[in-house]
Amino acid sequence: MKRIIYACIIALLASCGEQPDSPADTQRPGRDSTETPQQPDIQPDIPTDTPTDSVADEPGIPDVTPSHARGGYIHDFVRSEVDIDIYEAEGESVYAVRGEGFECYLTISADGTVRTHDAGGIKSFATAAEQQRRQGLWPDPVLSTEGSLSPDGTMISFGYTDSGGKAVIDYLVLSDSEEWADMGETVYTDAWVLPHVTFKAVKYSPAEHPWRVWMQRSTVTPGLYRIIDLYRGACPLSDANAATAGDIITVDASDPSHVVLGPSATAFVCPDIEPLTVGGRGTATGHSFVFDTPFGQAEIRLPK
């Protein structure tokens, strides 16, 4: 009997000595077992109706069906025809431009700002500037240039660097303007910027360094002309010019004895120097406009 009572007491004491798992143990399932915590079932939202005409693998292009158009592409004073695919997205439009030996992609924001993508063998100014910084170089001011949409919506001006690393400003004509007609290439001799600017330890003589410019005439006002990007193209200071691409300066020759150029403080912009105002009064002489300045004679030759 004593043995039975003793065994019962031992069993009772043993049962009273058991302790439940600690709170920490109950909050970490699987710590001392093969059970693993359950993860939430999250699946990516994958669209099932991707347009067949999409080119979403191209840089910066929305995954939508584009509209199609034709336009003119002006490069190095030569205009050629190109195909344009236009992708409309919220707050911006992307233009895919393709021509013979040329391809580029442009984004136009709602405010008219133009951005060039890296594609088709060209680099955007932002990419080119970053590459120069990585090489320990100070990027040329032109690499901060923004592209633009003309006020009448007929032309896009944009910049990029070509395969040789040269900065280029080109123009995409979406439709011909009703107020302006192209006259083509002409030659400009400067007297407002070159005498004051030294770029990469070189100061250029205006008389020895005239350059080509693109000129238009008004179809509404006789004697009114304009020049697009006066300090671009073959200008020896084009890489020092950070002005918005597509800058326009007017020439009023309605009175041949009192020709007025500008004035403009936006034709040449360089962050390293004080702003320069381009413009003055001159006369029409034969096939050119001549302006006398304290720093020499400026001349705009009319296209033949």
Brief rundown of the structure:
By secondary structure, this protein is mainly β.
Please estimate the helix content: under 10%
Tell me the number of structural domains: 2
The major sheet is characterized as: 8 strands, antiparallel, barrel
Number of H/I helices: 3
Q: How large a portion of the residues is in β-strands, by DSSP E? A: 35-45%
**What is the residue-averaged pLDDT?**
83
Q: How many DSSP E strands?
A: 16
Characterize the quaternary organization of these chains. single chain
Structural class: mainly beta
- The best one-word shape is globular
For the CA atoms, what is the radius of gyration?
34 Å
Low confidence ranges: 1-58
N- to C-terminal distance: 134 Å
Going across the biggest sheet, name each strand in turn: 1-2-3-4-5-6-7-8
The ordered H/E elements are HHEEEEEHEEEEEEEEEEE
General description of the model:
This protein has two domains: 54-176, Lipocalin (Beta Barrel), CATH 2.40.128; 178-304. 10% of the residues lie in helices and 37% in strands. It has helices spanning 2-16, 23-27, 125-134, and strands at 67-75, 78-89, 92-99, 102-109, 113-116, 147-149, 155-161, 167-173, 180-189, 211-218, 224-228, 248-252, 259-264, 278-285, 288-293, 296-301. The strands form two sheets. The chain has an eight-stranded antiparallel barrel with strand order 1-2-3-4-5-6-7-8. It has an eight-stranded antiparallel barrel with strand order 9-10-11-12-13-14-15-16. Strand 12 (248-252) and strand 13 form a beta hairpin. The radius of gyration is 34 Å and the shape is globular. The model is unreliable at 1-58 (pLDDT under 50).
